[in-house]
Design brief:
The chain is of the alpha+beta class and 176 residues long. It folds into two domains: 72 residues, no CATH class; 89 residues, GMP Synthetase, Chain A, domain 3. It has five helices and five strands; from the N terminus they run αααββαββαβ. The strands form two sheets. A three-stranded mixed sheet has the order 3-4-5. It has a two-stranded antiparallel sheet with strand order 1-2. The radius of gyration is 29 Å and the shape is elongated.
């Protein structure tokens, strides 16, 4: 349910198909009724396209452009995007709940900043890890880093975020 969608490729294909089909319908109706559709000179276009052969350079360029556009659309459809929501564990297997990445970052930042001695914290969500940068004045930082890691890990577990990987805590002093 929370997988990323393939909307850029879908929008491009839908737009191309709808414009092409609309133009084809308009041209067909215009040719059948004898009145041109819009301002497009169909007789000139038909005679111009009919004069081209498969060996013409224009046909080769147009076909290469169409192939490149098709490969680009296939690539857009095959490469997954980034999920917008982080899935959360629930007790009911039929219920799907997600949290935005920004919301999860804010929640984890609040957990890190709740530890005594932490001035500010910044959280980055990577694909395999949660990186927390702690800004502090504390002299003894070993215990502080362990407390921040535990607080962020506990908050991840408490929220039920199904976010794989480890919590990495880095230190930055105020003067640095």
């Amino acid at each position: 349910m929370l997988r990323p969608n393939r909307s850029p490729a879908g929008v491009a294909v839908a737009l191309t198909v709808s414009v092409s089909l609309s133009a084809a319908v308009g041209a067909t109706v215009g040719l059948l009724t004898g009145s041109p559709f819009g301002l497009v000179p169909y007789q000139k276009l038909a005679s111009g396209v009919g004069a081209l052969s498969w060996s013409d350079p224009d046909v080769a360029v147009a076909s290469v452009l169409v192939v490149v556009a098709g490969l680009l659309l296939v690539t857009l459809a095959a490469v997954p995007g980034r999920t917008r929501l982080v899935p959360l564990e629930t007790g009911d297997p039929l219920t799907v709940i997600g949290m935005t990445r920004a919301g999860l970052r804010r929640t984890l930042r609040a957990a890190a900043e709740s530890v005594d001695g932490v001035g500010r914290a910044r959280v980055r969500l990577g694909s395999r890890k949660v990186e927390v940068v702690v800004i502090t004045d504390a002299q003894r930082t070993g215990q502080l880093l362990r407390q921040v890691g535990a607080a962020v890990g506990d908050r991840l577990a408490g929220v039920g975020a199904m976010y794989g990987g480890e919590v990495v805590v880095r230190l930055r002093g105020r003067g640095n």
